[in-house]
Write a structure and sequence with these properties.
Distance between the termini: 103 Å
Shape: globular
Structural class: alpha/beta
Strand order of the largest sheet: 1-2-4-5-6-7-8-9
Number of helices: 7
Number of strands: 9
Strand content: 15-25%
Radius of gyration: 26 Å
Order of helices and strands: HEHEEHEHEHEHEEEH
Largest sheet: 8 strands, mixed, barrel
Length: about 250
Amino acid sequence: MKRTEYKPIYENTYRRRHHRRWWWGLGLLLVLVVAVVGWSQWQAHQKRQLENYPVRGMTINQDSGYLDFQQLAKHTDFVYLQATSGATYTDDDFSDNYSRSQGADLKVGVAHTFSFTSSAARQYRHFHETVGQDTGTLPIMVAVSYYGKYNSSNTDMAAQGQKLKTLVSRLKWYHQGVIIFANKQVLTQFVRPVLPSEDYWIAGGKLAGHDSQVKLIEYDADGSVTQNGQDQPVARSVFNGNQRAWAKYAP
């Protein structure tokens, strides 16, 4: 009688597991390929859109590190320097950045971050004492964002809106204008009701579809600039218009 051969059960189990791993590996590879192709296409689309915005700039703060402004001026039209936030905070590198930016062939602006917990008077006083006359030539940027309990569901936001309006009014003492930096939600819900005619700078915005009141568009909040072989973090923005419009906006 011919002997019947029996294969160990673990051999079939191993084959099934091997096949499953092969299919999982193939699926993962396909996902990676799709992700890489999608990212490349998005970058190409972004590059094509950027060609419509010839005036480009960046926002710099103490996290950006030491930057050579003469080098920046070769491919950047404007920079905004973070100066203050609320009634007490000062960016550690503001004074040094401002001093070194002078003489570079680019437009310079300064930025203040609005605080819901400090009065307009205290915020203005802190800004004025920190920057003095070192405000550059561009409109002063006031950044506004929701945080903590300060959001659209807070019934106290109407009073906060009046605080923002008062701060902006005081900053206009500098006679160079003010631009409000915020995302679309904050602009619509909080800023526009109290400052309907102000210039806006939209945060985290797409590069298209903005009206003329939006003067600047931040399109890459987590951007970088390479100097001396190192990538240093900056937020990248563009002016919403052509060179002729920029010359009128930032003479």
